[in-house]
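User: New here, any thoughts?
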Amino acid sequence: MNPTRRTFLRQFSLGSLSWAAFLQACRADSRPAGTPQPMVISTWQHGLAANAAAWQILSAGGRALDAVEAGVRVSEADPQVTSVGYGGLPDRTGKVTLDACIMDETGNCGSVAFVQDIMHPISLARMVMEKTPHIMLVGEGAQQFAWEQGIKPENLLTPEAEQAWREWMATQTFTRPPINVENHDTIGMVALDAQGNLSGACTTSGAAYKLHGRVGDSPIIGAGLFVDNEIGGAAATGWGEAVIRICGTHLVVELMRQGHSPQEACQLAVERLISKNPDYQEIQVGFIALNKHGEHGSYCIQPNFDYAVHDATGNRMIKAPSKR
């Protein structure tokens, strides 16, 4: 009998622990070495609230896929998060248009792009994955599918977002808006469950005041999100056009496959992105990654990108290192 069990038996004999507590300790103590511990990571400060919802599922032994969907739904429904879902800043025509994708441990994935009036595009993306033979639906076709699935249309343009759009229209020219900590996009999330399986989700209202019809990296498997259950998963945030050019999250996962840590893989991907985007000084892109062993990391172009991590020790923010 190992020392941990001897300790619990001794304490139990003194009446200091209940029988239920003793059995729970024995189960934890008997877990094979190297068994993965549940963990979830996500982008930006609003990832804390999203992580908390995901952790409720992970800590109860639930599936990573269910956790990431539940987690990012929190940001989608929060009007204070101006880059995702309800309350998201609109495009140049005043329309809130949404993109999302989801990917599970088997490689199944679903995606929607350029949808409107849908509070939770991540759940619609999962429906595409599970109820159709397709991976991506866009625009009116995706919305028609949503109505057929019983999703009710909702107005996502809040008075605050509409006022911000009107002020921008009165003062700004039609150039690419700067991407920074006030106008970033996306919540990306990757989770590892107690069974050792990975899943990921990514959802956004995109860059504020974008051209109507613009779709960034967030709904594109291999750009905004990629998961390989043998290796790990990654999510991206920032100026999506730059991420698409290098298939950013697929690159991160493949770098981990080559033996790089999540941190190293994110840094190498950012360096590749910089080499392919001469305007990199004007944009922000950040990657987060989580591998099969529960190791995580992040890297970004500009400073001030944070990502959230929730494991058995709690929910916390980590400042990502940057190239500049």
Summary: Residues 1-31 have pLDDT under 50 and may be disordered. The longest strand covers residues 109-115. The longest helix spans residues 262-276.
